[in-house]
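Dear all,

This email documents one entry for the complex benchmark we are building for the journal club exercise. For each entry we list the sequence lines for every component of the assembly. Then comes the predicted three-dimensional structure of the complex as a token string, followed by one or two observations. Please use this as the template for your own entries, and keep the labels exactly as they appear.
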Amino acid sequence: MSRKVKIILVVSAALLLLPLTETTYVEPVQAFSNQVIQQGATGEDVIELQSRLQYLGFYNGAIDGVFGWGTYWAVRNFQYEFGLEIDGLVGPQVKDKLVQASNYDEGYVKEQIRQGNQFTHYGGTERNQQQTQQANQPSAAVNVPSGYSQNDIQLMANAVYGEARGEPYVGQVAVAAVILNRVSSPSFPNNVAGVIFEPRAFTAVSDGQIWLTPNDTAREAVLDAINGWDPSGEAMYYFNPNTATSSWIWSRPQIKQIGKHIFCK
Amino acid sequence: MIRWLTIIVLAISTVGLGVWGYKENQDKNAVLIQAENSYQRAFHELTYNIDLLNDKIGATLAMNSRQQLSPQLAEIWKITSEANGDVGQLPLTLLPFNKTEEFLYEIGDFAYRTAVRDLEKKPLSEEEVQKLKQLHEQSGEINHELRKVQNVVLKDNLRWMDVQLALATTDETGDNTIVNGFQTVEKTVDGYEKATAETGISTPGTNQKFRYLKGNDISKQEAEQIAGKWLEKVKPEKITITQSGKGSDVPVYTAAFQNGERNGYMDMTVKGGHPLTIMISRPVKKANISLHEASNKAVEYVEQLGIDSLEMVESTQYDQVGVFRFVYTKDDIRFYPDAIIVKVALDNGEILGLSAREYYNSHTERQIDAPSLSEEEARDKVNPQLEIQESHLSVIENDLQEQVLCYEFLTTLDNTTYRIFINAETGDEEKVETLKQTEIMFDKNV
């Protein structure tokens, strides 16, 4: 490494650390925790796994801390190249091989993620050639159920919270399930927003309670419903027998009562 | 002096209040008009679209050339979906207005099925032409009814906001032209539905659910025992059992318990006592075990169901819970409709949920014929730009709600993974999915 390059490196590293102030830069020595990492996992181990795979050139996707399909294929290719059993699971053997073969600059990677930079972690390439663009939010990712965005989940959580915040957890899942049942029914709009904002469909929408800030329980209930739980028994409607004014709703075939709500077809 | 001052102050405030009130009223009216206009737009668009639909179906009946037929059907499909969107915006949900939406769906479904088909090879059958004629007639009458309502609305300057009010004031039978008009439309469609059912091509059936369930009916006491077995660590006397009403697809017993911060819930079928839904709710602490460890717990758990072979096809971590999806397999064929989902807490590995509705709804021992296409032949049907990484045989439900045997290929193109299903009989590409389950983390407190 020439002297010039070294200077540039030091300067850029210093520049990088500027906004941090007083944070000391420690070269990490520790490697993976002792868990077996499998597809779908999230967290620090996944960040390290992706960084190391990228260092060796197996992984070209973003280092975002979510073990998705891209990471899965990278692991399999790595296992193939290193003569290990090809199962896509990252156990002790795979980790040992990875740690031996690659370097992981934890400080660099985490800093990039925190700052929301687009960056790579290829071995043998200078750091300052591997980062571009400043965004203002962390560039880590999360798992979302296929076909839904975090914003869909948020919107549904709003609706569920507005409609059923005093209800037991199952009741909240059931309300979320009703929204999804309507989406897939031919008699209702075919997307989440269409169903929620259909005029007169939900009281929480007409009286504005949908814009209360939902809690984590509502969000979790929505996630469960999207992932396939339907305690309502595939209901299309529900009502509170104490406040329902429409006589029509009573004529629907009832399925069951959860908390204060009666669910019906 | 003071009196004069008071009078002046009062006078000014009265005038001020008046001005303020006037402005408020104006604002309110502006908003009301805005809302009214969007209702009006949806309604007039609806009548226009139904009119157009009627025309197009009529033209289809007259068409002879196949080249024109497919685009025309696609057009019909498009218009139906627009009309459906318009219906969804009208404030009529609590009126039983679903029939019209269902009718639109039926037309759309018919148009879609026929538009995507190669009409050169498989032209419209005699039955389908009959069906189309019938749909034409129905759309004509609906159109006629809607036009009548529209005429009254325009002539008498009726406002949708009044419909809102009429519906809100519980007095549903009230003398409201729009509501009555729509009820007439609804009745017209209702009459048709019975006629359509007879021709064999009907709306997607809900009547055939859970038809393969095995076992004898269980009693409430037995239900209590089964619930005690599945909802661990709960005393049986804490569990309450209720039975489902007549709206349920399949009769179920529901068991529930509440124990401090923990509460649980379970649905099981009366026939055979099979668990459909289990949910345990409690605060979950920070993740402590790995997703892999949790997946082993999930595998152990589903073994209790006594199903010979289940394969895990998906595992996903959402913060401090892991969700695992299993499908039934037999002779190395994956049956995607027979799915079971398990949720595991990552703080201590406790099972927080099971959903086996899909499995019990559709599972049966199917007779699967050996594929007539070899895997090599199926591979040739895949876009050559894709790199095939993995392959399986699997049964999926296609767009037409038929279960078909397919070759499933997991393929990659650059950094994207696609799942492709090639029909093992016909070689058709049944489904292509982009496997994307992650998203850049946005601020949770938007």
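Observations: Residues 150-264 of chain A form a domain with the Arc Repressor Mutant, subunit A fold (CATH 1.10.10.2520). The two ends of chain A are 72 Å apart (CA to CA).
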